[in-house]
Amino acid sequence: MLNKLLRSIGIGSARIDTILKDSTVVPGSYLRGEVRITGGNAAQEIECIYMALVTDYEIEVDDSTVNRSFQLAKTRLCDRFVVQEGQELVMPFSILVPLYTPVSMGKSKVWVQTGLDIKFAVDPQDRDYVQIRPHVLMGAFLHSAEQLGFRLYEVDVEKASPRFAQGALPFVQEFEFKPASGEFRGRLDELEAIFSLSDQSATVTLQIDRRARGIGGMIFESMGLDESYSQFSYGHSDLANLDTYLADAIRRFC
Fold first, then answer.
1. Over the stretch 211-220, which tens digit does the pLDDT of each residue have?
2. What H or E segment, with its residue span, contains residue 140?
3. Which PANTHER family is this protein grouped with (predicted)?
4. Which domain holds residue 171?
5. Dihedral angle, C-alpha 176, 179, 183, 186, nearest 10 °
6. How far is residue 243's CA from residue 254's CA, in Å, rounded to a whole number?
7. How far apart are alpha carbons 62 and 75 in whole angstroms?
8. Last residue of one domain, picked from the residues 132, 164, 196
């Protein structure tokens, strides 16, 4: 009776451990590995094994910044089964990393949450962080921005405003650049970029913050009129000319 009570609060219960084949992946690829289950001090019925890819995003609540979690993807590895006392089981898995998964820059974090759904007991869970590298189309943009003299100084995952909302996603990942050299130094305060990716193309929305010049510029800045928005799309065949596309998109507003 005591052992049953202890298992109900997670003591002596089955355990899980998620082993990732490669903890560094790119959006649009598969994250692979295996889940290892070790039985506790008695047989237990497992309702299912579930796995989710999760991220955090920031939201403003009562003048404070708090984090909210969002499941990017979720899968069920198996149906009901019984794990015997001390039994060791291994189950391989493969989960698609969505194209809208935030990349691991700045404070952005993505992890795999794995759990056992055990009847009448606390569900054991395992959390494993994943490094998300930029998709090739996003990486090309970041390189072009650097070639034009911009320095990436901040990356945030935050609640999406109506202007930047992407379908049902509650967040966007925003990349903020400062012009450190080149033709836009002294002409812009900063450049912000938000990406929407598909398999073959990327659409980037730019917020271009012009530097205030003179009294007129200061008035425009105080009224929020120093910010302009631009958007363009590009595919794999456009990467050789991406520096030019980006520069032209910025020049139209400064």
1. 544 443 443 4
2. helix 136-147
3. SPORULATION-CONTROL PROTEIN SPO0M
4. 136-251
5. 120
6. 17
7. 35
8. 132
